[in-house]
Every structure is written in C-alpha cells, then in structure tokens.
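can u do me a favor
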C-alpha cells in the first residue's frame, strides 16, 4: 500500500486537524493546539493562517458559517479525518515497533 502524499503530518498540522474535529476560529484553534499538545506546540497567528491556507487547498479543512462575521470558522473535512486517522495509525505502528525493541 502506498503512503498518501500528505503523510506524515507535521506535529503542528496534526494538532490543527485534531483541534478542528469541532468547528473553531483562529484564536480558539491556537488555544486548542496548545492544550492538546500539553503546551509543547505554541504558534503565532501567521503560522496558523499559513497552515490553514494550505489545508484548505488540500481539502483537509473547510470554512463553515459563523454567527460572528468578524471571525472565520473552520472544521475538518472527511478527507482530513481520514488523513488524521492514517497518521495516527502510522504513529501507533512506530510506537509498537519501538516498544518491541526496548522490552
């Protein structure tokens, strides 16, 4: 089986996709990423919006309607969920292989 061209995800992109399982705007995404990563990943707005632009082009995210016209809200697409799942499976395999060699 060939690997998807979008894999492996960077740590930042992984957390952005994970944060967008529920719709969120930019500032909330940054907060969720920091929380999900246990404070290991903190990003500036420019980094986030550059990543969002690329993820929109790859159809891994999509904009959704927002009650607040000043905020752009995004959510992960089905394709994005599949890529996230594939990267999760890839990392589980890596962890299992590592554990087998350290036991």
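np, heres the sequence
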């Amino acid at each position: 089986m060939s690997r998807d061209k979008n894999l492996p995800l960077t740590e930042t992109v992984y957390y952005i996709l994970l944060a967008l399982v529920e719709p969120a705007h930019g500032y909330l995404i940054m907060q969720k990423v920091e929380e999900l990563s246990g404070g290991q990943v903190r990003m500036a707005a420019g980094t986030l919006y550059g990543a969002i632009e690329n993820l929109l082009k790859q159809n891994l995210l999509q904009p959704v309607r927002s009650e607040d016209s000043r905020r752009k809200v995004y959510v992960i697409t089905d394709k994005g969920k599949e890529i996230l799942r594939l990267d999760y499976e890839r990392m589980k395999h890596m962890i299992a292989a590592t554990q087998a060699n350290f036991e």
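The beta strands are 24-25, 61-64, 73-76. hope that helps!!
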